[in-house]
Design a protein that fits this description.
about 250 residues, alpha+beta, elongated
Length: about 250
């Protein structure tokens, strides 16, 4: 059932809109307005109220002046037309599609995706993170397996599925980080844990060493610990952090 909306006007007793048609009456005299104008007037309720009110009041004021100046039925009709034209102008002005004021859902998903990639890059590029939190690359753990699956799925997601894939990636990344930080090197066997902890100390010594020769020696020994963990299957072979450690060692020898 269509709802009725009464809109008061200075030049009429009432104007009624039922969703499709607009009718008005002055005293006992009814009149009907074309549907195109009627729908425009009805949409006023959904517009910016302040702008609409200003324009509508101005048009009503003009309608009253015009009706009084011309007089008679003609003046009354002109007043109604001016009032309706004021509403139509407000509708055109305010109903114009607004310029986007913020990122779209796809753009937000892209930003979240980049944020996860940036955070993960800090882990896989840093030799110390590699040695402190080897659990991040232990794919036998459900949390870690979920993250790498989500990482791959997001990279090949269609535009329609992209936002959902990014949401899954963010949750998976949070879970993988929690696992890695909570376990540290504690999940390793004692001998392997000792290797990881020694590797961390050697890497830190290298960064604080005073001479290039000392730095090269510490980097080489830290790299040996990393390679030992790789050979044991506890770290992947193709990590940027390993390449960076090799590069740091070579740079000190030149």
């Amino acid at each position: 059932m269509r709802s009725l909306v009464d809109i008061p006007f200075a030049s009429t007793n009432w104007i009624r809109f039922d969703g499709c048609h607009l009718s008005c009456a002055v005293g006992s005299t009814p009149c009907h307005v074309p549907a195109t104008i009627a729908k425009a007037a009805a949409s006023l309720a959904d517009m910016n109220v302040r702008s609409a009110v200003v324009l509508t009041i101005a048009s009503q004021f003009l309608a009253v002046l015009l009706a009084g100046f011309v007089g008679g039925d003609v003046g009354l009709l002109l007043g109604i037309v001016v009032s309706l034209l004021g509403i139509a102008a407000a509708v055109v002005m305010i109903a114009r599609p607004a310029e986007p004021t913020g990122p779209t859902a796809f753009e937000q998903a892209e930003a979240h995706h980049r944020a996860v990639l940036d955070e993960y890059a800090q882990w896989e590029l840093d030799p110390e993170m590699l040695l402190r939190f080897p659990g991040l690359w232990d794919r036998s753990r459900p949390e870690v397996h979920r993250f790498f699956d989500a990482l791959a799925a997001t990279g090949r997601a269609t535009p329609e599925a992209y936002s959902e894939a990014v949401d899954e990636l963010r949750m998976a990344w949070a879970g993988a980080q929690r696992h890695a930080r909570s376990t540290g090197t504690s999940a390793l066997e004692p001998a392997r844990r000792s290797e990881a902890e020694t590797g961390i100390k050697l890497y830190r010594h290298a960064r604080r060493a005073a001479t290039a020769e000392e730095r090269a020696t510490y980097y080489r020994r830290a790299l040996e610990k990393v390679r030992s963990l790789i050979d044991a299957g506890l770290l992947p072979r193709s990590l940027p952090a390993v390449e960076r450690l090799e590069t740091l060692q070579r740079a000190e020898l030149t």
